[in-house]
From TrEMBL:
Domain of life: Eukaryota
Organism expressing this protein natively: Anopheles coluzzii (African malaria mosquito)
Source taxonomy: Eukaryota, Metazoa, Ecdysozoa, Arthropoda, Hexapoda
InterPro entries, sorted: CRAL-TRIO_dom (IPR001251), CRAL-TRIO_dom_sf (IPR036865), CRAL/TRIO_N_dom (IPR011074), CRAL/TRIO_N_dom_sf (IPR036273)
Protein name: CRAL-TRIO domain-containing protein
Gene3D superfamilies listed in its UniProt record: Alpha-tocopherol transfer, CRAL-TRIO lipid binding domain, N-terminal domain of phosphatidylinositol transfer protein sec14p
Length: 319
């Protein structure tokens, strides 16, 4: 495999591991990668619906890796992704880390990359739910924050290959954190974002989930696939989390050996400033949603299913 570029969290000693994951889990090898990139660029060139689209390796490999180098499936996901960006501009337009609202929730340490798991190579994202001001902001801001973090990290090959682990501290969350989600946003997020954003989300850890939130989650997850449920881990206490997650990763406040969330967030904010131009340039991509030619997308991304969030889970495509 070709040498991989540096990432936000270095991959020291992980190059061979990433090559192994790419080969065994994603079917990636040099010749297939080159052929797939060529085929995908030709598809973009001939697709009259796509007026502007990134065609660099890093961007296209997001989709090819998630779809294990099935070019037709990668092309369909790319078209879904572009369609979704224009269908939900309130979530995707101007993902500017200097935006006042996004800056405020970032500085509250609502969602912070904390390190790279040496066992799996995955980047680990840590969220403190109670730090999100649900009286001031709604779920649109929460989704925008998730999209900003994902888009900032997705061009990095290690993250495309090894994937992401998310950890959420739910201690101290209130009903406002639940009720700030409208049905439209919940259904749209589940059905569209999870199916259209090329992220390999491999683990989700939830800590100290209040009883009222646990009941809602349990009901929703009853409709999820076994594969999705297997990637969700609930821990009653931080002590239980420490038994499952390397102390080398966890922030100092959580009994780990890492830096404090504030220090980690300051590093991430500096990284986001370096990515600001690239993040804003995503808005230059365009798909003609009114073009009558047959699309790769065979159902409306923006459609909210009749049975709401429950139907959304039935549509999830889990890598």
């Amino acid at each position: 495999m070709a040498q991989r570029a540096e990432t936000f969290f270095p991959c020291n000693g992980l190059s061979g591991q990433l090559d192994q994951i790419a080969a065994t889990e994603l079917r990636e090898e040099d010749k297939l990668r080159d052929q797939s990139l060529t085929a995908m660029r030709e598809w973009i060139r001939q697709n009259g619906r796509l007026h502007r689209c990134r065609t660099d390796d890093r961007f296209l490999l997001r989709f090819l890796r998630v779809k294990k180098f099935s070019v037709p499936m990668a092309c369909e996901m790319l078209e879904r992704y572009l369609t979704m960006r224009q269908t939900y501009p309130r979530w995707f337009a101007r993902l500017d880390p200097e935006d006042a609202d996004l800056g405020a929730v970032l500085d509250a340490c609502c969602l912070v990359p904390i390190g790279r798991d040496p066992a799996s190579g995955r980047i680990v994202i840590f969220g403190v739910v109670r730090n999100f001001d649900a009286q001031r902001y709604n779920s649109d801001t929460m989704i925008r924050l998730n999209m900003l973090v994902a888009e900032a990290l997705l061009d990095e090959e290690a993250n495309q290959i090894a994937g992401f682990t998310h950890i959420f501290d739910n201690g101290g969350m209130t009903m406002a954190h639940v009720t700030c989600w409208t049905l439209d946003n919940l259904a749209g997020y589940l059905r569209s974002v999870i199916n259209c954003v090329p992220v390999r989300l491999k683990e989700n850890h939830f800590v100290s989930v209040p009883t009222f939130a646990a009941q809602i989650s349990k009901y929703c997850l009853s409709f999820a696939s076994e594969k999705l449920r297997a990637r969700i881990h609930c821990h009653s206490t931080v002590e239980e989390l420490r038994a499952k997650v390397s102390p080398e990763l966890l922030p100092l406040e959580y009994g780990g050996n890492g830096a404090t969330l504030k220090v980690l967030n300051e590093r991430f904010r500096e990284f986001l400033r370096s990515k600001r131009t690239a993040l804003l340039e995503l808005d230059e991509m365009e798909i003609d949603l009114k073009d009558p030619r047959e699309a790769a997308v065979h159902e409306d991304v923006g459609e909210v299913v009749a049975d709401g969030a429950v139907g959304s889970f039935r549509k999830l495509s889990i890598d």
